[in-house]
Amino acid sequence: MSQKRNTVGRILFGIFLAIVLLLLLGFGLLWLNFGRFVTAGRSIQKLEDNLYAMEIKGDYGLDEFLETGGADTDTKVGQFVASYLSHGLYAYQGSLARTPFGCSTLCVRNQDGNVLFGRNYDWEESTALILHTVPKNGYESVSACCVDFLGFGENYRPDGSVLERAEALAAVFVPLDGMNEKGLMVTDLMAGGTEKADQQTDKPDLTTTTALRLLLDRAATVDEAVELLGQYDMHSSLDFAHHFAIADASGKSVAVEYINNEMVVTETALLTNHYLAPQKGENGGKQSHLRYDALKKRIGKTMEKEEVAAALESVAQKNYPRTDGTIRKTVWSWVYSPNEQAAEFFFNEGFDFSYKVSLNSKDKWIRK
């Protein structure tokens, strides 16, 4: 009798052990598939009203996105991201904002000969996310995303529910500007025209924002960035004309524009919201030219960080009140220092205070 009880006990213990092992295996597989995304979602922190920060490390799907041909519309990008992050369990249901925005950039050197790059992002009052990415296959970078462009609704907050935190990971594919560890700096600006890039060849496809993600992850110099862009068909995000300001740690700075679906590269230290390519002739709105001319007057032989920030403040939207009843703001501004692998981030035209963002910090990558 005792032997039978021992046998039954061993069987029950074996069953229990098998169940535990299966549960552990299942949890392990779940963590293998979703663990890095859970960690990224938990990293989201609110810095102040309408401003958040997030860090994501590992594979976030760029390789698969490119290998499967990319995407030629923002909606298809959203569908890919939702499917990749959820392993097919979640379908993208967002609706991207489609109103134009304005911007200004400048590239200069300081007294030590190091490059500084300034950028204003102008739009209506909105929510921003500063993103630190350390990809499995690519360069570490910092970038910024307008959360409103993700299309999750006006009540969406990145630090909300588990689902909202997961949805914030889509920001990886919607950067509007950034700098990587090699010192490449890229920004997206409206070009002021109605001509959209919509290249149709047998090359894989990129939208404006996925192009920025590709460059931040894979390009170290302006030349590499231009070469990479030439390997893809470009399609304008948000159905507007765009151009890129791209600069690197050597001081090379260009505008990349698409005219008649051909890429045109123009060397320039400044860019606002009108085309610089001579093929376009006179173009763009009055304010774009005012901002461009104001920055041109401020550029000296050298400029320090404080002077770059002051130049950005001089062309912030608060200096150009609108008469049509609409409100525009300089939502954020960057001063990148590629030599230091660091940047200063100013929010909502508050140029008396900045967040310090670092790519080589061993503790906090962002601090007040």
Protein described:
With 368 residues, the chain is an alpha+beta fold. The chain has one domain: Penicillin V Acylase, Chain A. Helix content is 30%, strand content 27%. The chain is built from eight helices and 18 strands. The strands form three sheets. Strands 1-2-5-6-7-8-11-12-13 form a nine-stranded mixed sheet. Helix 5 crosses helix 6. The chain is globular. The termini are far apart. 44% of the residues are buried.
Helix/strand-derived class?
alpha+beta
**Might you state the CATH topology name?**
Penicillin V Acylase, Chain A
What share of the residues lie within helices? 25-40%
Would you tell me the overall average pLDDT?
A: 88
Total strands: the figure is: 18
Please report the distance between the alpha carbons of the first and last residues: 72 Å
Q: Identify the CATH homologous superfamily.
A: Penicillin V Acylase, Chain A
Number of helical stretches of at least 4 residues: 8
Please report the first level of CATH classification, the CATH class.
Alpha Beta
What is the general shape?
globular
Strand content: 25-35%
Report the major sheet: 9 strands, mixed
